[in-house]
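Many introductory courses stop at the sequence. We go one step further.
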Amino acid sequence: MATTRTETSTAKKTAAKAAAAAQARPETPGEIIAERYRNAGYEALVGKNGENVSAAMSAGEAMLAGFAEVSQEMIDFANARLRHDMEIAEEISKARTPEEIFECQCSFAERAARQYAEETSKLFAMMARIQQSCWAPVQERTKEALHGLNGDSEKSED
């Protein structure tokens, strides 16, 4: 236990001495220039990072909004299908002959297949639109960054 305290206090004293020595020594012009460029490069990198994070956040927001839209559409479709299923069950219960039951079942199958096909098409179209809205902020930010790399800063402001 005593060894740990001694090592910790020794490490603190050594770090304090090194900091004091660094402050006492005058910086050379080369060190001053290097420090300025290091800070400028860091700030340029971090400044652009904020724009990148903003683009990613916008993409995420579009994705979440899209998920909510798809979820609501699927719930609405499931509710409509449940209502149709209950209607066909009622029609089958009122049928008087096997032929009427068969007609109800065929009608049910045709209607369900058509509705599922239409819903699938609708969901695919929604997903394609949502995908585009998710990629749009990232695509725009990438274009801006590429223009900046090429020195075309006026183009990115248009």
